[in-house]
């Protein structure tokens, strides 16, 4: 495991944000039949990086082959155990008939799909079969067959999940959506787009740019739209545009019985029955496989101001973020970084930013309005010991600054290239953010581990990256202790254990404290009603001790 | 029935927007024990109108007593039939033990609760018992008892629903939430508030005003927060702030088995498990009784520009609304009225507005930004044959204009005081709105009935008020034909049969065309899992022909 991780780290430090896509594009069987009649987004993208991909492929395969043991070292908290039943030959034959060449039982491929790429979560099993469906119809047939044989299914998108969503603790069939990347229709006048779930948000935005539109969710590079729906993700722009919950118009989903459900019309708002769209968003593949997504788009703003401001303490920085939100200013980004995170960014990017608590702002709209908002927030910052704003002036400088911020996780590995990262994700009511960050920071600073703080401060959502040596059990335990501390502190403040990363296997243990057993029983009742055989992504989201 | 309706019409024309609250405050038993330890919002409100209420009470009772026949005239489409089983004496005794004096079996009270106030929907039965719980605990006990005896429950808020949500086609127990109106906590720094479901949105905003905050949903006057959650309502400000879906942080809900479920934390965003909050919003009391709501609040804007603009055709007006949205302008309201609706407003309010298709705009933010947005939209309007903008200058004039708009329904009755109204509620992708309105308008204009058009044009949501003589079967049929025409036209445009009013009994027949049988079966599976005895608001939302 260590080898694979360290390879990823090396890769991260060379061509960080694209590494997930690269892995996707070279480490699996190539599709024999691309869907025709519509634009395939991933193809040109993968193509442009082909030389690099080919150069790295041998390295990848070599390192994967060295790391085939499962379970191994590590806290049991992060190793998901599951019983495993052999997949019946009859099912294999049915899947072959459906998927033709687009399936594999190759060990390396199964191994690769058995471990999320950016996560310390592991499982004691890996999938038995990987299928690469090309259409909703194929997904429906695959799921119908698996349901008939009561074999588990794990939907698989960009695999950038941090909480173990794509683990296959019971083996079974992994449905890799990477061949379903079409833009099915772009409705410029309605500012919406209908896509297949395997398309990445970055590729989608490349496609949309010429139309003056964009999709305003920006999770980790490599994330796909389907996975983003499944985990109810958000990102730095959620403070302005909301999360996936607010930005999906409707879905098509294949349920456990193989039925294809359309969750809503294409109208922007509707009161027509239960909100199946929102039920599916954040259900982490435990209720169905998403096969089509209609997304709400935004106009690319005509103007933006991007600025940074430094503070003597992280509490000052957090207070300014809170005061900015209270002012009624519709900031489009307000990101907080502590001095350790800035140091990491400097190290990884050859920058020389002041290594002190920092806020990064973006104001958008007309030029006059962006500037007016900036002046108001500058005044707020001054009242809280902030320095003068430093502006990113030209479009390239602005883009670079957000790129650096987006790759903060990889930057952390520049400080400790052979370490793993525990990434936390709590979110609290806004008024509690400064206190939560202060208390957490105190705990992090007094720890022996290197920890950085990054917050989507306008939403009350903050992350820490806790670096630890995976070979040092004591360090792993300390990382876990810090995570527990922050989660419980957030829950005591009426917050949540996960603002945007999802439950997966990692956060199940906190749900009862957060929501109560009644809510969990309700979730289990819904799960059982829609997936009576329990085949859909088993072992995720609903804690195993919940009984009906 | 006619007498009661005509009384409402008379009442409407005298003191329109408050009539629902007045009815609520005098036509039911007064609570014996108000909840203590927190502010009761409805009390001072009701008190201030007490003299008027007392003056009207005799009139009300007299007219109600004249109209006790059910079913009667009218299309069978709008008369909901249901079997009725006598409520067991044991349940009555249990309810008495829970609710003490806060329950009634008085016929007038049951009759009153058996007919939604603004709706042409009727049922062949009325509730057998009305209970007025004072706490979540009481609601839980009531529901537990009803579930034990398998007796239907109908939750009852402001009763302003248009689609028959509060009908009791199978009799049973009506749970009137009008004694649960407390503000449980206001968190100014988090910009959220925790309330009981019986509080009205208008009363809540009165309470919030001194804090510089408001709740940005504005459905019909008299609507309560609980009912607004249940129907996933919106209103004129949804174009800026979203619907109830986007503005509720969490709920507490009593399920059919009596369990109290907390659907989420108080964090603004969370990825912690299935989105039970959104599942309950829009479930119309068929999954549970809402007992507590945490709402997201907004700052009262520091400045606003309110303007009207006239157009030669309704298509021009619709095109301007669409172009405004495409421009990226964050308009806070863009309401469209046809010439008939303007005539109604003039008649009811003694105004002299030009009786032509009209757009009403609101732009908010800083003064400079509001004015900048106004200039951009003025330019768009000019390009589409719009007149110069006419501005409401002072705060009182602005308030009056929105009040007139809000009371548009009552204004329609000024044209035909003894008629009933069929109110339609379709919503389509924005690019189709102009075409839909044009086609509908053509159909409406060539009808013998008086019809007005009001649209939340920025959302693609539009209503028509079709006035008809309830004694003329031919007129009723014609109103139904027009409604069908608009719904089917909207569905053919990938729209929805209900943008904000909900399904109730009125829109069930369109859901299969809109969503497909697979989605309806999924809803039924969820319903059955959470309410196996089918006691929660039976006969609503899920069409009876949906089988598992």
UniProtKB/TrEMBL annotation, chains A, B:
Mind telling me what this protein is named? D-lactate dehydrogenase (cytochrome)
Q: Which Gene3D superfamilies match?
A: 3.30.465.10, 3.30.70.2740, Vanillyl-alcohol Oxidase, Chain A, domain 4
List the Pfam families hit by this protein, alphabetically: FAD-oxidase_C, FAD_binding_4
Q: Where is the FAD-binding PCMH-type domain?
A: 123-300
Q: In which family does this protein belong, per the annotation?
A: Belongs to the FAD-binding oxidoreductase/transferase type 4 family.
Cofactors named for this entry: FAD
State its Enzyme Commission number(s).
1.1.2.4
Q: Which organism is it from?
A: Penstemon davidsonii
Give the EC class as a word. Answer: oxidoreductase
The cross-references to PROSITE patterns, in alphabetical order and at most eight, read: FAD_PCMH
Signal sequence region: none
Keywords recorded for this protein, A-Z: FAD, Flavoprotein, Mitochondrion, Oxidoreductase, Transit peptide
